[in-house]
Amino acid sequence: MKFYLAIFITFFINISIAQSSKDTEIWEPIPKKVYSISDSAPPNDAIVLFDGTDLSKWEGNWHDKESEWMINDDGFLVNNGNDGPRIQTKENFGSVQLHIEWKTSEDLSYKNQDRSNSGIFLQSRYEIQILDSYENQTYVNGQAGSVYKQYIPLVNSSRKPGEWQSYDIVFKAPEFNAKGEKVKSGYFTVFHNGVLIQNHVEILGTTENVGPPKNIAHGDGPLFLQSHCCSKVSFRNIWLRKL
Ligand code: MG
C-alpha cells in the first residue's frame, strides 16, 4: 500500500510542477511600431529639434531670450564661440533618448578646454561634454564624452576636427520627493560615433566645474547646448524621443 501511495504522490507532484514554455510567454501589451529609415534619421515618434531649417524649437537663455546662435549657409547650427550665450529648447523634458551630430572646429590655435568646448546639458544640469579630443590633452573627466567631472568615457572614439560625429544618449532623469530629497538617481548611457562610452552610469548630481555635484530638487527642464570659449562647434540632425 505504501508503495502505491508513494507512486501516487510522486505522480501528483510531477503534475503540479510540470512546466511549459507557455508559462513564461507574455503576449500583451504589444510594443508600438516605430519606423526608422536609418540609425541617424529621426524615427517617426521622435521630436525633431533641429533639421537645418529653423530654430523654432529653441530660444536663448541669456538676457532677452534672443539666441546668439545662427544657422549657417550649410544649414548647420553654429555657436558664436564665446562664453555664455547658450541655446535651449523651449520645451522641458524628462527622460529621453537623444541623437545629436556635431563637429569641432579645424582652427587648432586653442588647446585643452578651449578647443571647441561645448556640451549637451540634460535638464539644464547634467552635461555630456563636447570637445575636440582627437589630439588635445585635457583632464580625462572633462574630455569629449565625459559626464563632466563625474565619469571618464570608457574609450576615446573622437574623430578628427572638422569631421561629423554623433552622440546617442539615453538619459534617465533623477526623481525627487515632495520634501526635495532625491529618491531615484539619474543615469546616462552614451554612444559616441556608435561606440559605447558611458554604460548606465549613475549621475551624482549637477555637473559642476567648481565643487561637488549638487542635488537640488527639480522637475523637467530644457535641453541646452553650451557655448564656450574659444573655437566654434557646429550641430546638425538633433532629435529626441521621450521615454
Ligand atoms: Mg563643455
Structure, described:
The longest helix has 16 residues. With 243 residues, the protein is mainly β. It contains one helix and 15 strands; from the N terminus they run αβββββββββββββββ. The protein has a single domain, classed as Jelly Rolls (Sandwich). The mean pLDDT is 91. A hairpin with a 3-residue loop joins strand 7 and strand 8. The strands form three sheets. Strands 1, 3, 4, 6, 9, 12, 13 and 15 form an eight-stranded antiparallel beta sheet that branches. Strands 2-5-14-7-8 form a five-stranded antiparallel beta sheet, with no helix packed on it. The protein binds magnesium ion.
At CATH level 2, the architecture is Sandwich
Q: What's the domain count?
A: 1
CATH fold assignment: Jelly Rolls
SSE ordering? HEEEEEEEEEEEEEEE
Give the overall average pLDDT.
91
* Total count of helical runs of at least 4 residues: 1
Structural class: mainly beta
- Radius of gyration (CA) equals 24 Å
Ligand set = magnesium ion
Please name the fourth-level CATH homologous superfamily.
Exo-inulinase, domain 1
Give the % helix. Answer: under 10%
Query: Total number of β-strand segments?
Result: 15
Quick tags:
binds magnesium ion; 15 strands; 8-stranded antiparallel β-sheet; 5-stranded antiparallel β-sheet; mainly beta
Short note summarizing the structure:
The protein is mainly beta and 243 residues long. The protein has a single domain, classed as Jelly Rolls, CATH 2.60.120.560.
Task: Map the helices and strands.
Blueprint: H1 2-17, E1 47-50, E2 58-60, E3 70-71, E4 77-78, E5 87-89, E6 96-104, E7 118-122, E8 126-130, E9 165-172, E10 175-176, E11 182-184, E12 187-192, E13 195-202, E14 224-225, E15 233-242
Antiparallel strand pairs: 1-15, 2-5, 3-4, 4-15, 5-14, 6-9, 6-15, 7-8, 7-14, 9-12, 10-11, 12-13
The structure holds magnesium ion.
